[in-house]
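Problem 12. The chain below contains 231 residues. Write out its predicted structure in token notation.
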Amino acid sequence: MEKVQSKTLTEQALNQLEQLLESGEWPIGEKIPPEPVLMDTLGISRNTLREAIRSLVHAGYLETRQGIGTTVKSHSGLDRALRKRMRAGDLVEVLELRLALEREAAEKAALRRTDEQLGEMRGLLALWKKSAEEGKASSFVRHDSAFHQAVIRASGNSMFMEMYDSIIDSVHQSIYNLIDLNDLNQEDIRMHTALLSAIEAQDPVKASECVKKYLGTLIDQVNASEHNRKK
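Solution.
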């Protein structure tokens, strides 16, 4: 039997950083602490820390962007697998996953939301409407997804939020693929407003119905479009 070798300093640092990431210590999208802080916390040199961070970037846990720094990209292997799978998934699959996740989250949000969270959702919905009126697609997508993220957060379920963060790139893309700001009808606005009203009234059944109607309609539209394309 081969002798078991002791772990290198880099491997030890890597394991410690993975534990911090998987514990949710650092939220997805936020910058990790500065190098001096991590060096002091882990008791390692700058070179060892940088080597461990490079490994985590390659593994998909972290992301380094010029002018921003190193941010958290995922918390776990499941998180990374979801991101990869969602990139390969088709639009209907993305919408069906959103439907399953957002219906449950909307129910919980109606029961658990705070006044502060309600105010945040109200503000984001107003910005969403304003972006549509001004024809600003990128702003529309940003505020639309931010509104739905706020609903997920209001559910009080950290697992919902982590899963939604894992698919957020696909959520953005699905919105881009479907929006037509020139044809944003009153029904779209009414359903989003109704969802907010249901959450405000703490009506979980109504909140769930709003999500089902909104995303269910989008799924039907995509399926119909695909059917016509194949004719």
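Discussion. The first strand starts at residue 62 and ends at 65. Students who got a different answer should revisit the alignment rule from Section 12.3.
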